[in-house]
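Support reply, case 0932

Customer input (verbatim):
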Amino acid sequence: MTEDVHPRVMLLGRTFEVRGTCTYTLELAESLPAAGFDVWTVCPNADRLDRSLHEPLHVHVVPYLDSPVIWRVVANGLVHDFAANPPDLVHVQSHAMAHVGVYLAEHWRRPYVVTLHDAPRARERLTLHPLWGRHVIAVSDWVRQTWAGAIEPAQVPCSVIHTGVVLPEFSTEGDLLDPGRRPVIGTAGALEPQKGVAYLLQAARIVLRQGHDVEFLIAGSGPEESSLWQLARSLGIQEHVSFAPELYTFDVAIRAMDIFCLPALRQGLGTVMLQAMATGRPVIATDVGGVSKIVQPGRTGWLVPPGDAQALADAMLSLLSDPAGARSMGAAARAYVAAHFSVGEMVQRTAEVYRRVLAESPTAVTY
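Our regenerated output:
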């Protein structure tokens, strides 16, 4: 085979939203070609993805591929379309799409890799084909541990590869808590019950009642959006809370914040939090999941118990009362992400998994 022919990898993703799991897919799609792979991304919906990225990242939208009723019919169309020239490897981007990825790869008789971003639901299992299901990637040690015993066959290798984030060329921690403007405390992510944003709003009321003139920013969309609006009104803090649901990226929202909060009740890693840290923001996060191993209390931010609005408020007040300390934490957070969560390392280690899987595959081809 000629030297300019590269292994072809299909990234099978969920519906694109502005959330950490989709950031993971986009970073792989953008960076894997430089590592020697031809990559295209298949997903059910990309309406929330900036359309300027569709062509350069080879995004193929296949509607209803995630439908619980008709996904198999849609997948059969993909099986047929690529029957003559299937990908060399399928990388399923989340366990939510694992059933589709397994179906496609096994029909094409191609190896597949599955990435796990969160803990399994009650009684959930991941069953891989003993011949084609070759590798599992977990984004944190906590995620790997929660899936122990829930993956079949048990001997399938599982690597922990942290999601990498892009480090902005410049940070703005020097502008944090500027006395000439209102401080902004915020969060960003999917507005779902497990994200714990209701506790952030309850903490906001405590901070405001202590006389602090603070703005709170909630960036993201999801099923909890309406109820969170209502909660802000019922708490009487709506004049101090802004929602930003229609975003293609969280970058602008994060740069508008002085302090980033992740009040999640459970969290596999916290990719958006890492993006905030990379921008030089001190973070307040709940002591759950993979987050516990990232935030260094008193150095890069603070950890608080999940579901504890008072503890969240106390941490906010601590940072608000010490702007210099908050800026120092932001700088340390940025340095920590630069050292431990680079996109380059994530891509390199993922590419190593691909090469190993392809070399061991029954359909192995030397590239």
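We compared this against your earlier run and they match. Two observations from our side: The mean pLDDT is 94. The first strand starts at residue 8 and ends at 12. Please reopen the case if you see a mismatch on your end.
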